[in-house]
Amino acid sequence: MTQATLQTSTTAEELLAAVEAADNGRDILNPATGELVGRAPAHTVADLETAVQRAVDSQQGWGALSDEERCDRLMKAADAVEAAAEPLAQLLSREQGKPLNGPNARFEVGACSAWLRATASFELNEETLVDDGETHAVINYRPIGVVGAIGPWNWPMMITIWQIAPALRMGNAVVVKPSEYTPLSVLALVHVINTVLPDGVLNVVSGEGDVGAALSTHEAVGKIMFTGSTTTGKKIIEASAGTVKRLTLELGGNDAGIVLDDADPKAIAEDLFWGAFINTGQTCAALKRLYVPDAIYDEVCAALVEVAEQMPMGVGLEEQNVLGPLQNKAQFDIVDRLVNAAKASGARVLTSGEPDYDAPGYFYPTTLVADIDPDNPLVVEEQFGPALPIIRYTDLDEAIAQANALDVGLGSSVWSSDRDRAREVAARIQAGTVWINKHGGVDPRIPFGGIKGSGYGLEFGVEGLKALGVPQVISG
């Protein structure tokens, strides 16, 4: 498929035909309907070897281009993604389940082109460290070589761009390993971007866990970028040790939000809702446990219920929906187990909590749970779905201590009418990012990363670019 074709007449079916398996593929089903989306290639470790070698062979020429030339290619990649935006969004909706509208499929594809453009716009110049008349020392960042990008199923296209855009900008070649649940979306995205890149610079291998494991140990791969569970992240750390790989790990989160007693419940309700339920709750940096003071607890609960009841859930390709299914049965079962544990404990379910187990698709209704113990499984385990526990507190210090008690620290938020007071509370929260009166609002200009069990390393902005290079100091 030529670039011109992509610009004028590409459909979702044409994209799918360009990337799905000719034979011996693996069925990918729509999580909203159970219908066949397409057949993903079942690549093997041998296919990975071929992809890595292609990356090695192409990297030197790509790295030899000027920074300006590589940025120009990233801008052209953004143009190509925009030209194919609607078919990409439709394929994403069918495979991942997220609706076209709201902060979902069309939003995700738009974020891909926006992140490509932003990554190409950052200035990263030689930095003078010392220049005192006797010593002159500068630092630059050289290409690592080949970068392995292992992505998740919740935001498969957008997070792939988060990984590959800075890697390409810094002169690296890339091998992408998408999630087994959402390979077609990533294959299509890479297909579109490769219409403007030199052959071999960006490669994708769609396989099972053994392919990801082989990528993590491959001696020709200098860095792994991984977004996913803490359990898998620990395995990657162990697997990469033998080759001393660089790592950026964005792992599981169980983000806390703390509402202060001066907040306006109605004013913050919709932002609270989307902080928790964006992508139907399937977001690492979503709001997953909300601490609300007794003084305004009932008002906040009532305001959230009012917002939740206005948000339609259903099949993603139906334009009216803004919430979709859980992407897979395993995640549905996790959410169901945790909500049932909350109900069994005597917690008060404000909205739904009663899925239709006989209906097609992995739909779990929007669920708000009040008057729940802070040690309940729904609070201390990451639900990663459309169920939000709302914990009542009377002492702010205790609420902060509970927010910090878990071995996670990706994001968090503070909600208040007094921004200075909110910042004081934010400084006491253990998380890589603390948002004020919003939650999960990532920005390509602002570094993002976790602490504790949520991983390490920074993405986005100039710091994210530096993480995709090898620092070299020249002093003399």
Termini Cα gap: 52 Å
Q: Please give the domain count.
A: 2
CATH architecture heading of the largest domain: 3-Layer(aba) Sandwich
Q: Please, how many helices?
A: 17
- Rounded mean pLDDT is 96
Describe the structure.
- The chain is of the alpha/beta class.
- It folds into two domains: 3-251 and 452-475, Aldehyde Dehydrogenase, Chain A, domain 1; 255-436, Aldehyde Dehydrogenase, Chain A, domain 2 (3-Layer(aba) Sandwich).
- It is built from 17 helices and 18 strands.
- The chain has helices spanning 3-8, 12-19, 45-64, 67-83, 85-96, 105-121, 156-169, 183-193, 209-217, 230-240, 265-277, 297-308, 329-344, 377-380, 396-404, 419-426, 461-466, and strands at 26-29, 36-40, 127-131, 136-143, 146-150, 173-177, 202-204, 223-227, 246-250, 255-259, 287-293, 348-351, 367-370, 387-393, 411-415, 433-436, 455-456, 469-475.
- The strands form four sheets. The chain has a seven-stranded mixed beta sheet with strand order 12-13-14-11-10-15-16, with helices on both faces.
- The longest helix is centred in the first third of the chain and has 20 residues, at 45-64.
- It starts with a helix and ends with a strand.
- Mean pLDDT is 96; it is low at 1-8.
- The active site is at 250.
- Belongs to the aldehyde dehydrogenase family.
- One of its GO terms (molecular function) is oxidoreductase activity, acting on the aldehyde or oxo group of donors, NAD or NADP as acceptor.
